[in-house]
Design goal:
The complex is a heterodimer of chains A (252) and B (851).
Chain A: H1 9-15, E1 57-62, H2 64-67, H3 77-88, E2 93-98, H4 104-109, H5 111-114, E3 119-125, H6 128-132, H7 137-153, E4 157-161, H8 171-188, E5 191-193, H9 216-234
Parallel strand pairs in A: 1-2, 1-3, 3-4, 4-5
Helix pairs in contact in A: 3-9, 7-8
Chain B: H1 2-14, H2 16-55, E1 59-63, H3 69-80, E2 86-98, E3 107-115, E4 126-127, E5 142-145, H4 147-153, E6 160-163, E7 166-176, E8 190-194, H5 195-200, E9 210-217, H6 224-234, E10 241-244, H7 251-298, H8 303-335, H9 338-346, H10 359-384, H11 389-393, H12 406-424, H13 430-458, H14 467-477, H15 483-515, E11 522-528, H16 532-542, E12 553-564, E13 567-568, H17 573-580, E14 585-590, E15 598-603, E16 615-619, H18 620-624, E17 632-637, E18 640-652, E19 664-666, E20 677-682, H19 688-701, E21 706-709, H20 711-749, H21 755-763, H22 768-806, H23 814-841, H24 844-850
Parallel strand pairs in B: 3-8, 5-7, 14-19, 16-18
Antiparallel strand pairs in B: 1-9, 1-10, 2-3, 2-6, 2-9, 4-7, 5-8, 6-7, 11-20, 11-21, 12-13, 12-14, 12-17, 12-20, 15-18, 16-19, 17-18
Helix pairs in contact in B: 1-8, 2-7, 2-8, 2-10, 2-20, 3-6, 4-19, 7-8, 7-10, 7-15, 7-20, 8-10, 10-12, 13-15, 13-22, 14-22, 15-20, 15-22, 15-23, 16-19, 20-23, 21-24, 22-23
Chain lengths: 252, 851
């Protein structure tokens, strides 16, 4: 079991491009189920205690950065945002619609699936893998535009989180990449968080050994950063009754 | 002194004919050692050259950020301590190549590598123009590119390309490139430029994805491992990976390591087999001399003089036989591996295997030959000291007096230590030696015990009415019988031969998987659902397929396990996260059939019908981790929860990569609605042009699809593994042949003790036929038993080697074991009888008189 089991040659070998990040996600690790002591529960397994769809949703459409690759789900930034929302007394449920390794093209295709239920806000946090694979920026622009337009059609508010391409692709690529987010936010009048990993990217103490994915402390920083843009939006999401009368934080 | 030599020579002269046979037996034993050890050393030299070419240096340091001062200081300090040490740096990054013409939109993602002048330390860069590689080609913004870049961007040698803020000129095309990390499949074609030029492009700024590598050349081979350990300790705090050409993470180099261990195994085994051959000859030889010893003692020779005469004689005999063996070895080597050398030369870039004898192997072979013969001559001869000559003349048994004979113990220990030193000398892996010795001792002990048990067990049969059976049993049990000796020689021989064969089968089975013709060499990722049909059409048009058939697109989804039987699973602590490697997100798929590399080990796999209730099949490892058949596993798939029942457990052969492997496989129907992407493992078109065209077409139409071309890498893997396979087959074949010859010799040896009794039987009226039946029974029983013990021991050896040293899945090779036992029994029976035929043909009186 000590040996790295790989899903296949191809994808396994992509792993050695670990420097190139989320692409490596395609690998099957030995991936033990944590704690070998899974007790054989006799009772039927209940689904999540709160039935899905009860609370209004905030969906984050993202990649491995959102999925919290290498972190327990509870430490990824969407879970951290949920804590802040709960503490602030908002009724919203954060749904992490994240697929490691996903590009803007993939995000567009799974949008309908992700938008199921009472979705009030869509956070678009894609582009990282487009950048790491040097995919054409025109294509990313079209994909992201289609995503925000679809959300608009469904009367769902959008928060666009930007991404930066690494400088190794050259200045012309990185600048046009950056402009995609700016132009899109400008033309559609969207709230823009210019760079999702602001203050986290490039700081060794906040990232895992791969230098790409935030660690627990980094994810907390990302949550704080997203919160600055998210919090002002919450009041505008849907009707007022969604705000719970008693704020949890007001309790003694 | 002169007397001793004269006597020794006189004795040799008197029984020249018989000695010739001994001589040949010693020669076969020693020849096997010399030939195989030489070949192994030569193959190892070639493999080392190959491994070095793959790394392009002795030691490497890799990291994904610029070197820190600490790292640089540590390397400088360590390198300064190495006379002749040198360092060269490379940097790799994925970047975009454009045409300098700003209006052109043609771009291509490439793997850019910057190298310094000293690169590569090992191996040859081969250029399409045929000229030798010269770092000056990279001067002044020169670039060397992989052929597929030209095809995909429609460029020619001499054309300019733009990378980052700089413009380069294509100076030549790279055909093969040393130091290409085989682990890494390229996301784009290789572009090679000068190291400084990469920095000048401005691509390596803050946040860049780049891999920095330092290659070190170390003059002293023995200094490499300590250097790696030292650097690892120095740089524990840094994000730096340190390795050497022999200690890397990747697969092909691991395979080279396996081959080395296998060769090391054969090296040890052949020394022991050769030793057994020499031992059995010496034993008989000395026994036959005991009579002469008695005569000499009666005539007043002192014990020390007698000892000196016979030890000198045996040593001379051993030396002569060993020298003849060296001649055998030379003849064998120049004949057999010619094909190996040619093949290697034909495959460019692979060091040819020399077919010369290596001096160390010659010295070792002769050393083993002489030492073994002296050891096994000395011990019985030392017993003679205490024996009254009359007893010997009466053909009584030599019974050593009670008490510990320290001289004997000391002599045995001294010569034994010499043997161990000779056997361990020049061995690549002492660990292998340890396993061999442990195996040797345990099988020897088992054989000894079985010999004893056999003697007791068959004794009642001595009352049998059948003449042949009765006397076969009597032969096995009479005083001074050969039961234990034959059992020991044949048992150990078959143990090693079967063991080596089985290890080889296990090893080559693993290689064969990677050498398959239908190994995928092109990988597509991120194909969206609406693109699947179009991509499939493009692939079919270009003739790309999966496993020799139509292109198969595999649907994949990402799923996180959130619970098993309702229990929330969580990852406890950082260590668990590390172990899990990638968080507990899995790539899952669905299909209605099992792939070739899958086998259901529990439960029942679903049929083609679509499921109503989600069903999942898990990989065996997950089962070991605590998920059981019938468990409900809860997944988070793209933010939705799905609960699936485990209905089967699969064993996946991960090394067989034709269709990948999945920890979780779902029954079709579960993900009908869910968005998912496709990946494909393909065999792309063989022809370079068509290949480049296909990649260009796919990317032009479906820009998000990435095509990963593994042809170069797989080509190298094939080449190296094919070569290793041939080397192993040849070495294994010679080892088998040598082992059988040695066994035949050992068994045939025993005929000298039969002559007398055969003559007596015949005089008393026994027919040749009865005698043959008697011999066949006796040897057949011995052969079967020895073969059985050997086969059982061999399975143990194979298991140990496979799991401890070769890291290949252990397969019981019942075929080899059964054939091994049968052949051993048959061989021993036939040789036993055949070697006795001349005894039977002889006139009994001649034998009786000669004695």
């Amino acid at each position: 079991m000590g040996r790295m089991r790989s899903c296949c040659w191809g994808v396994a070998l992509v792993l050695s491009l670990a420097a190139c990040g989320p692409l490596a996600d395609g690998v099957e690790g030995p991936a033990p189920i944590a704690g070998n002591s899974v007790p054989p529960a006799a009772t039927a397994a209940p689904l999540a205690e709160t039935p899905a769809g009860e609370r209004p949703r905030i969906v984050i459409l993202g990649d491995s950065l959102t999925a919290g690759l290498g972190l327990p789900a509870a430490e990824a930034y969407p879970a951290r945002l949920q804590e802040r929302i709960d503490v602030a007394g908002w009724p919203f449920e954060i749904v992490s619609a994240a697929v490691s390794g996903d590009t803007s093209a993939g995000g567009l295709r799974r949008l309908a699936w992700a938008l199921e239920g009472d979705v009030r806000l869509l956070v678009v946090a894609l582009g990282g893998n487009d950048a790491l694979r040097g995919l054409p920026v025109e294509q990313m622009r079209d994909n992201l535009a289609a995503i925000v337009d679809e959300a608009a059609d469904r009367r769902i508010a959008v928060l666009l989180a930007g991404m930066e391409a690494p400088p190794n692709f050259g200045p012309s690529y990185t600048s046009s990449f950056r402009n995609v987010f700016r132009d899109l936010a400008g033309s559609r009048d969207l709230t823009l968080l210019p760079f999702l990993l602001e203050g986290v990217a490039g700081v060794p103490a906040l990232n895992q050994a791969d230098g790409i994915h935030p660690n627990a402390a980094g994810a907390e920083r990302v949550a704080a950063h997203v919160w600055t843009a998210l919090e002002p939006l919450l009041g505008r999401l849907g009707d007022e009754r969604s705000k719970t009368s008693e704020r949890v934080s007001d309790r003694p | 002194m002169r007397f001793i030599f004269r006597m020794a020579l006189r004795e040799l002269r008197s029984s020249w004919r018989r000695l010739a046979f001994f001589f040949v037996c010693v020669a076969i034993g020693v020849g096997s050692i010399v030939a195989l050890r030489s070949l192994i050393q030569n193959v190892r030299v070639a493999l080392t050259a190959e491994a070095r070419t793959l790394t392009a240096g002795d030691v490497y340091l890799r990291g994904d950020r610029p070197w820190t001062e600490e790292t640089l200081a540590a390397v400088r300090r360590r390198l300064a301590a190495q006379p002749g040490g040198a360092r060269t740096d490379t940097v790799d990054t994925v970047t975009m190549v454009r045409l300098p013409d700003e209006s052109s939109v043609r771009t291509k993602v490439v793997e850019l590598r910057g190298v310094q002048e000293a690169f590569p330390f090992y191996g040859q860069m081969e250029l399409r123009s045929g000229r030798p590689y010269d770092p000056a080609l990279l001067d002044d913004w020169g670039a060397l590119v992989a052929p597929d870049l030209l095809a995909q961007l429609d460029l020619r040698v001499g054309d300019p390309i733009a990378i980052g803020g700089a413009e380069f000129t294509i100076r030549d095309v790279i055909d093969t490139e040393p130091g290409r990390q085989l682990g890494a499949f390229a996301f784009g074609p290789r572009v090679l430029v000068a190291y400084d030029a990469v920095e000048a492009t401005g691509l390596l700024g803050l946040g860049s994805r780049a891999e920095y590598q330092m290659l070190l050349r170390i003059g002293d081979e023995a200094a490499i491992d300590p250097l790696v350990d030292g650097l690892r300790a120095d740089l524990e705090e840094q994000f730096v990976r340190v390795g050497s050409y022999r200690r890397t993470e990747n697969r092909i180099e691991r395979n080279l390591g396996r081959a080395e261990n296998y060769l090391s195994l054969i090296g040890f085994v052949v020394v022991i087999l050769g030793g057994i051959g020499v031992w059995s000859v010496t034993r008989v030889f000395v026994q036959q001399r005991l009579r002469s010893v008695a005569v000499l003692k009666c005539l007043g020779a002192t014990t020390s003089r007698v000892l000196a005469i016979y030890v000198a004689q045996v040593a001379l005999l051993g030396l002569g036989g060993a020298t003849l063996g060296v001649g055998f070895a030379q003849a064998a080597l120049s004949a057999v591996p010619a094909s190996l050398a040619e093949q290697a030369a034909a495959a460019a870039g692979i060091a040819a295997v020399s077919t010369d004898l290596t001096p160390s192997a010659v010295v070792q072979g002769i050393g083993v030959g002489v030492l073994v013969s002296v050891l096994f001559a000395l011990v019985p001869l030392l017993d003679v000291r205490h024996v009254k000559p009359l007893l010997l003349l009466r053909q009584g048994q030599v019974e050593p007096p009670p008490g510990i004979d320290w001289l004997r113990v000391g002599a045995t220990a001294a010569v034994g230590a010499g043997l161990v030193a000779v056997a361990g000398w020049q061995a690549a892996s002492l660990e292998v030696g340890l396993y061999v010795v442990v195996g040797f001792v345990s099988v020897a002990v088992a054989l000894h015990a079985i010999g004893r048990a056999l003697v007791t067990a068959v004794r009642p049969l001595a009352a049998s009415r059948l003449f042949a059976l009765r006397h076969a049993v009597l032969n096995l049990t009479r005083p001074g019988n050969q039961t234990r000796v034959v059992l020991l020689a044949v048992g150990l021989g078959s143990f090693f031969i079967i063991g080596v064969r089985a290890v080889q089968t296990n090893l080559l089975a693993g290689f064969a998987l990677e050498l398959r013709e239908d190994m995928p060499d092109m990988f597509l990722i991120d194909i969206q659902q609406d693109q699947a049909e179009g991509v499939r059409a493009l692939l079919e048009e270009a003739g790309a397929g999966s496993g020799g058939g139509v292109p198969e697109l595999i649907p994949v989804l990402r799923a996180r396990v959130t619970g098993v039987q309702g229990e929330e699973t969580s990852i406890e602590g950082r260590r668990a996260v590390r172990r899990a490697g990638f968080g507990r997100e899995y790539t899952v798929t669905y299909r209605a059939h099992l792939e070739d590399n899958e086998r259901v080990v529990a439960g029942r796999f679903w049929d083609a019908e679509r499921s109503v209730v989600p069903e999942v099949s898990i990989e065996e490892n997950l089962h070991e981790e605590g998920i059981d058949l019938g468990d409900r596993v809860r997944f988070d798939v793209l933010g939705r929860e799905i609960e699936a029942v485990v209905t089967s457990v699969r064993d996946v052969e991960w090394d067989d990569t034709r269709s990948g492997g999945f920890m979780f496989l779902f029954r079709p129907g579960t993900f009908d609605e869910a968005p998912h992407t496709f990946i494909a493992f393909l065999q792309g078109p063989r022809e370079e042009e068509a290949r480049a065209r296909l990649q260009r077409d796919i990317v032009a139409r479906y820009a998000n699809v990435s095509v990963i071309d593994g042809l170069t890498v797989i080509g190298t893997v094939r080449r190296v593994l094919g070569y290793v396979t041939r080397a192993i087959t040849v070495v294994g074949g010679i080892a088998l042949l040598a082992g059988v010859l040695i066994l035949v010799g050992s068994v045939a040896m025993t005929k000298f003790q039969r002559m007398y009794e055969a003559a007596v039987f015949k005089t008393l009226g026994a027919s040749s036929r009865a005698l043959i039946t008697m011999y066949a029974l006796e040897y057949g029983v011995l052969g079967t038993l020895a073969g059985l013990v050997g086969a059982v021991g061999a399975m143990g050896l194979t298991w140990t080697m496979s799991s401890r040293l070769l890291d290949v899945p252990w397969q019981v090779a019942p075929g080899i074991a059964v054939v091994g036992v049968a052949v051993t029994a048959l061989l021993v029976g036939v040789v036993g009888v055949a070697s006795s035929t001349d005894v039977l043909r002889r006139k009994p009186l001649a034998t009786l008189r000669a004695e």
